[in-house]
Design goal:
The chain has one domain. By secondary structure, the protein is mainly alpha-helical. The two termini are 20 Å apart. It contains 15 helices and no strands. The protein is globular and about 75 Å long. Helix 3 (86-119) packs parallel to helix 14 (333-358). It comes from Glonium stellatum. This is Acyltransferase 3 domain-containing protein. The chain crosses the membrane at residues 12-31, 51-72, 104-124, 173-195, 202-224, 244-264, 379-400.
């Protein structure tokens, strides 16, 4: 497979995917790190402090995915609109809107099928008995009959896209929102292709304010709407400044924007009242958002948006994100997102809890107790092996599964458009979480 062109938005996607995995590992094994301190009277661990806590937190990474979705899905139509090529813009929107569903849904169906297969070959048996609440909640039983297993699979495949819950992989709850976000981009582009760039920016501002005001719901407010709109706004800036974007702001400003965004993204998932800095942030945000809104999502979104703007205007940040390491992380970002929870519940759980499973602990009544994890060194070694397996499998996915999905989707598109296949079978666009 030909290597993908390096670009900074791809590198950022890879960082976001890696952060999601880190966040779920933190939730599984050290959930207390999600608070800024054990209590208001205790000193924080270094990984509970601002900036450092981003090493084990993945909430802002989800916001980054929505920002990237808004950016990459609107950059083409906005460019054609600015060039006055409205016919091409409308055609591109029409084709992209139809293709988008297949390019997102088909890989997700395969990932759910993989998790279903493991569950029904009893690969998750150990998961039910571990001392990690998060891993234990991901357990799924082995269905008693083949028919029951097939019905369970169909149910999970459908509900991922209807109510956002996949019983075989709970981390797929965001995927229907990504699809909705893409459609939000296409609808906004359809409505604004003929307007001036200044008018389109005003539309983005109004949409952002609407999303802020409706932020009680994940599907419309602080998680999806705000980030999708900022992504489109940055795509507008890209088409406005093009290659000169990294010289628009004075040198220190992009770096300061990135630092500010990272601080805002450090807002803790749990117990903000345990530290003065996070308690102040909570009170400040509560005064600005609708009643009962989840202030964590607002800080996640504001932080991720500010980081994106800083990177957009920073030559050095872009250079880092286009390096070979980040290019690789970007190439495999979607399969990493799809596979990591399945591998946590199987491979990582086996490695971490196997010594305890070989001699299960029992209470005074002889009843089996929760399996206990190994030593800290044991866990670190297991996590290192887990990461190797995860990224190796993700690379294999990119090499073999992605091209297969692309061929299936493109064949369906050719049929829908009444087109004949070209000499090489058609488009070979990678399947991305974009």
């Amino acid at each position: 497979m030909a290597p993908r062109d390096a670009n900074w938005i791809d590198g950022l996607r890879g960082v976001a995917s890696f952060m999601v995995v880190c966040g779920h590992l933190c939730t599984a094994f050290v959930p207390w790190l999600h608070s800024p301190a054990h209590s208001a009277k205790e000193a924080p661990h270094i990984l509970q402090l601002p900036f450092f806590r981003l090493c084990v937190g993945g909430r802002s990474a989800v916001a980054l995915f929505f920002l990237i979705t808004g950016y990459v899905n609107s950059i083409g139509p906005i460019g054609k609109s600015r060039a006055g090529n409205t016919d091409a813009a409308f055609t591109g929107i029409a084709r992209s809107a139809l293709a988008r569903s297949g390019r997102l849904v088909l890989p997700t169906l395969i990932a759910t099928l993989f998790s279903w297969f493991l569950a029904n070959t009893n690969a998750y048996h150990m998961t039910k008995h571990v001392d990690s609440t998060w891993i234990r909640q991901g357990w799924h039983r082995q269905e008693p009959t083949i028919w029951a297993a097939v019905k369970s699979l169909l149910h999970a495949e459908v509900e991922t896209w209807t109510n956002g819950w996949d019983e075989y992989d709970g981390t797929q709850w965001t995927l229907h929102l990504f699809l909705e976000g893409s459609m939000m981009v296409y609808m906004t582009m359809l409505a604004t292709i003929l307007v001036t760039p200044r008018a389109r920016k005003l539309v983005f501002v109004l949409l952002y304010l609407y999303s802020w005001a409706s932020g009680q719901g994940l599907s419309s407010g602080a998680l999806k709407g705000m980030n999708i709109v900022v992504g489109m706004f940055v795509a507008e800036l890209h088409n406005q400044y093009k290659d000169s974007a990294t010289s628009v702001l004075p040198a220190p400003v992009p770096g300061l924007l990135i630092l500010l965004g990272l601080f805002m993204s450090s807002y803790p998932q749990d117990a903000p009242e345990h530290a003065a800095w996070s308690h102040t942030m909570a009170k400040f945000m509560h005064s600005l958002v609708p009643k009962d809104a989840d202030v964590r999502r607002y800080w996640d979104s504001l932080g991720a948006s500010t980081v994106l703007l800083g990177i957009f205007f920073s030559r050095n940040a872009r250079r880092v994100l286009t390096s070979p390491v980040f290019n690789f992380l970007g190439r495999v970002s979607f399969p990493v997102y799809l596979l990591h929870n399945t591998l946590i519940k199987s491979v990582l759980t086996w490695m971490v809890y196997l010594p305890s499973a070989m001699n299960p602990p029992r209470n005074e009544k002889g009843e089996q107790m929760d399996l206990q994890r190994g030593s800290t060194t044991h866990i670190f070694i297991a996590i290192a092996v887990f990461y190797y397996i995860l990224y190796r499998m993700a690379l294999l996915w990119v090499v073999y599964i992605d091209p297969l999905c692309a061929k299936i989707v493109n064949a369906a598109l050719r049929w829908a458009y009444g087109e004949s296949p070209n000499h090489n079978g058609s488009l070979e666009k990678p399947v991305l979480l974009s």
